[in-house]
Amino acid sequence: MFIGEYQHQIDSKKRLAIPAKFRRELGKSAILTRGLDNCLFLFTRQEWGKLVKRLGELPMGQSDARGFVRLMLAGAMDMNIDSLGRILVPEYLKIYAALKKRVIVVGLYSRIEIWDETHWNRYKTKTEKEVGNMAERLSELGI
């Protein structure tokens, strides 16, 4: 399980060190893809397999389903994690998430999110202001 928030940097060769706490669960490879809200998602191979199975079951005739599947699958890259725990972030994913040098790596149970630090701080501040309303809406779902 991935939890926590960590500040890291992308080096001049586009390498990002994954927090040591997360590396054990990831192993030697992982899947990196476009995420939601302009961040990147990093999955273990096992979690990626579960997601791909569910995406494959979406109706191809439905426009939103096709678009979402394209976003997730076409953007996905197999990542090798080097001996120092780093991944190489492809340029197109770096551009998608507007990643600069300073990034935030966030553990969210079954996935890791990678955010540009400025975007993360803006998102987090906005969300923190709305957390009471969110909790109320989620209570209607039994959460």
What does this 3D model show about the protein?
With 143 residues, this protein is an alpha+beta fold. It has one domain (2-117): Transcriptional regulator MraZ domain (Chemotaxis protein chec), CATH 3.40.1550. Helices cover 42% and strands 29% of the residues. It is built from 5 helices and 8 strands; from the N terminus they run E-E-H-E-E-H-H-E-E-H-E-E-H. The protein has helices at 20-26, 45-56, 63-74, 91-96, 117-139, and strands at 2-9, 15-17, 29-34, 40-43, 77-80, 86-88, 102-109, 111-116. A hairpin with a 5-residue loop joins strand 3 (29-34) and strand 4. The chain is globular.
Indicate the multimeric state.
single chain
Beta percentage is 25-35%
Number of helices: 5
- The helicity comes to 40-55%
CATH class: Alpha Beta
